[in-house]
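User: Some background: our group keeps a shared notebook of sequences we're curious about, and every so often someone picks one and asks for a predicted structure to add to the entry. Today it's my turn. The entry only has the sequence so far, pasted here. Could you supply the structure so I can complete it?
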Amino acid sequence: MVAWVLSLGPGAPEGPPEFTAYRELQELRCDKVFDRVAELQEPAQTLYKGAARACLAAFDGRKDLWPRADAAYDAVVGRRDELTCMDRAALALLERLVALHSQFPHRAFENAATDQAQAPPCPNIVGLTPDHGPAGTLVRMTGQHLGAPVVGVDVVDSFGASLPAENVSHVKGALEFRMPDAPPAGASAVACIVVRAAPDWTADGALFTYDSADAGSPTAFDCPPTQAG
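Assistant: Of course. Here's the predicted structure to add to the notebook entry:
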C-alpha cells in the first residue's frame, strides 16, 4: 500500500497552474492533470505529466504508463534547482511511486487514509505584527517555511506597482523587515506583502494597511494579486 501524501493546506493560493495540477493529483483525478499543464514551462511540464502517468499507472491500472513515468523522472531529477517548492513536492511523489514500482513491480497500490496527508514545503503566511502603520514600520511575519525557500519580500499596491521590503532578515523561523514608501495618492492604503519562493515564484501574501494621509481609503484587493505568480 502506498500512502497518498498530498495536501495543499490552509491558505494556499488557488491560481497558479502548479497548484491546480497538484490539487488534481491530491484528488486522484490523474487524467485531469494533463489539462492543467499547458501554461507550465519545462521541466515542470514534464514533471506533472510524469506524475499524472505514475498516478494512472498506480491507481487506475494503466501499467503501460510506467515506462513514460520513469522517463519523466529521469528527465527532471537533475533539474531540481529549476523547480518551485510545489514542484519539488510533486517530484518527491513521482520519485516515491517509480521507486516503489521498481522495487515491487507486482504489488498493488492503494490510497491511504487522508490523515496521513502532508502540506508541501511552500512559504505560508500566518500573520503580520503589526498589520498596519506608516512607512518604515518594522513588521514581523510568522508562518511556515519562511526560511530558505523565501528569496524575496515585495510590497504591492492596488495599482500593481511593487517595492521591495527593506532590511529583510530571518529571525527564529520568522521574517522581519521594514515597510517601504506608502502607496501613491489615489491607491488604496492597503498593500499586499508578497513572499517569493525559489527560484522566483509568488508563494503567498498578506495585507498591510498604511497609516498615510496621501493614500486612499483602505480597500482590500486580491492578495497575492491575480497577475502575480
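Suggested note for the entry: The beta strands are 124-129, 132-133, 138-144, 150-156, 162-164, 166-171, 174-178, 190-197, 201-210. The longest helix spans residues 85-103.
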